Structure formats: structure tokens, C-alpha cells
From TrEMBL:
InterPro entries: LptD
GO cellular component: cell outer membrane; transporter complex
Keywords associated with the record: Signal
Annotated source species: Selenomonas timonae
Name this protein carries in UniProt: LPS-assembly protein LptD
Coiled coil: none
Cleavable signal peptide: 1-26
Amino acid sequence: MTKATKTRILLAMTTVCTVLPPAAHAAYRGDTDTGFQHLDFIENERREERANRLTEEQKKLLADVGEMEKYLRHPVDATAPSPIAFEGDDLTYDERTGDFTAKGHVDIVQLAARRFQGDYVEGNTVSGEVSVPDRAHMLQLTEGAARVTLDGYRINYNYKTREGTMAEAKGKVGGYYMTGKRFEFYPDKIVVYDGTQTKCSAQKPDYHLSADVAELYPGDRMVLTNVKFWIKNKVIFKKKHYEVDVSHPIQRNFPTAGYDSDDGFWLEQVFDYDIAPRVTARANLYVTTNKGWRSHYDLGWGNGGASALLTYGVFDDGDDDWVKKEPSLILSYGKRFGNTPITYRLYSEYGRWYGSGIHSNHWQYGISAAHDTIPFHGYGLDLAAGYSITRESYDRSRVQGFNASAYLTKKFNDRFAAYVGGIYTKSTKQNALFYFDQEDYSKVLQAGLSYRLDERNRIGVATKYAVDPHKWTDVDYYWFHDLHCSQIILRYRSKQDSWKVKWEFTPW
């Protein structure tokens, strides 16, 4: 038996693990008809940077892991548990049995970028058990696992099996701020019982959800049982089962609100339900003070590159042109051409459309193809083309022809980015029966720029120019302002003299 005061013991057992940054949640998608969506990557890059940004505590853990490597006596065995180091004011270690105890500011660091802290820690280096019976702190930056920063009680963890538990804990797991009566840790997942989740870092979050059970699979998905969605202290709706993947964030289930010069004040809320494997029902509720309800309802199926969507309700575009689908069936199939950078899509929409006092059986079908972004002298070049046919029963019209687009986008520095591009389309408001989702003219040039003022503010300008009849049809101004856990986006359309203000929760 050996005993030391204010000492540190290093036990070498396995390989060094580097930090695996978590995937950014919630891709931002802007709503615009001037090409400004080509700068959406700015918001997404910033959200990813925030999600992956290391805290001072995490930086110190990596520094301590680096120091541990210097004191390893033997090469690390990749098949054995990771080396650990113990440090405390009063530490006892039995070399025969592997039992140890540590008291007073105990710090246990594992070479796999994992840390446990508490006032009293006990365990066994042979079995790999670590126990913190009272208040405990856990920090994890292990490769292939979720980033974890938790404060709680009663840690029991086995660093050989990578399994353990923690009670009454609160902190951050992956990209989520979480609480739970019990956390269970496994090599491939973390399970939380009677907990809450949010991506809002406030002490009293603007929004969160609670669940009886939450299973978090790092880099993949979160599965929740008996879920309640909250805004402040109010439950807005419930679900028995809810599954979130990294490309579909929780925030899409919370409302968006704002003001529009045409609609007045408005509120939008999306509800979706998985009613069968690969079958989802969705209600997109949109209510305005000037025009009342303008909602639509979907029943969708998807499998691989194939999808089908039956939809009914009112749809608006960026020019405040609207159409009511009563209903409409949309079929789509998309796939990459072999190993090429080109993706194609076959599509068809057939349904009963109503707008401007006109009812018509509307049928549009065609094919489109898009090339992956091409690096071009420091720019990104995006190319797309297609062919479509649109038939209307109301006037027996048929509009058909090619469409194409090309855009150059460049991020000049951390503050400034810009794009320029052009569109050609055969179908326009000049020859289409319905104006909804149509360009004003056949040949259009678009350009815009974005400039970040500071951490919380970004401004932008987006323009559209009609080649024939040679006039500017749109000059729009944007202001993005970040609040603590939400964002305000202001858009002023100078040619139309109209405003749109949108407030939405943001996933950071």
C-alpha cells in the first residue's frame, strides 16, 4: 500500500484519442427570390463554428492530455483501456489490488480526453471502476463520442467498458443543454431519464422540450419518448415518440413570428407526425392579422431518392403571389449520375389549383440536373438546368421549354461575401396562368453581398435585374440580428416599398 499527499499518479493503459467536432445542427435556409440564399452558407458556417468552439475548460483538458503523453513509460497499447492520471490532496493507492481513494480537489484525467472531478473519489485500476459518491463533474472530448460537460451526483463509470451512470445532472451533451434525473453512458449512446433538452444556453431557456426518456446517438440521431414542447413555462404540444436527426433540428417544431407589409402580423407553426414507416403527416399553420389563415397540410412518403406528397392548402411566394391547392399530388425521384458530380431529378405535380378567381387542373412535369459546386479561381460555381412542361385545363394552355442558372459565390474574408448569377426560364408571369412561384421575366441577372458588422449583426443587399426590358425589378436590404437564443431578420424591398420582419429560434 502506498500513500501520498498532493500527488499525481499516472497509469498507462491505451491509445491517445483526438477530439471529434460534433456535426453542426440545423442548416439555415433563407426565403428569398433574389438569389440571396446563395449566401446561406455564412449562417451555417457561423453556427458550426459556435457548435465546435472549445470552452476554456475543454482547452485545458486537451492541454492536460498533452502533458500526460510526456510521462508515459511505455508505448500505448491500442487494445487496452486508456491511461488515467489521479491527482488529489490525499491519495491512497494499493499496487497489489488496484484500489485507490482520493480526497480533496480530486482530478482524474484519462488520455482519451475525459475528466472526472469531485471532493472524494474511489475506484479500482484493475476493473476500471471510478466512483464519485457525492457532487461530481464530468468532461468528455473523446473521439467518436458526444462532447459532454455535466455537473451532478453519484458518478459510477467504468473506463474499460465505457459504461456508467450519473444522477441529477445538468450541463451540455453534444449540441444540447440537458438536465436529467439519471444519465446512462454507453459506448454508442447516452440515455437520459426524466430530462429536458434545448439548444438555448440561458439559465431559463426561451424554449425547450422534456421527455421521459431521451436516447442520444452521437453524430446520428436523438430518440425521445413522451415528449413535451415548451415555450418558457407553457407546453405548446406533445408527442409520444419523436426522433431527431442531425439535419432536422428540434427548432423546426417551435413557432416563427413576424410582420409583413402585406399580411400584417403573422405566426407560423409546423407540426409533423410519423404515422407509419417513411410516412409523415404535417400541418403548416400560418395565420395573419390581414388575411386570416393561410395554412397547408401534407401527407408525405419517402424512400431513398423517391418521394410522394399529397398537399392541400394555401401557398405564398416571395412576391406575395398565392395559390390554393385543392389538393395536389407531387411525385419526385432524384439520384446522382453514377460517380459523377451531377444529380438529376424527375418530378411531376398534378392537382386542382385556385387563384385570382380561376380554377384549373394544373399539371407540371419535367427533369432537372445540378452540378456540385465547382471551385473556380477562389470562387464557387453552381450550375443547374432542366426542362419542364406545364399544362392547364382552364385555358388549355401548354408552356414548355428549358431553364438554366449559373452562380458565382465568394467569401472574401470573415466579414464579406458576395454572389452574382443569372437565370433563364421559359415559364414566366408573361405566359403562365398562375403567377405563383414564377419569375417576372425570362432572362434575369442577380447579385448580392453580405457584410458582418460584429458577432451579433450582419447586413446584406440583394438585387435582381431583368435583361429585357432592361430594368431593376428588386433591390432588397437585409439585417440579421442575433438575440440570446433567437434571431430577428429584417428585409426591406425598396422597389415594392414593403417590409418583412421575421423572428425565429436559432439553434445555438
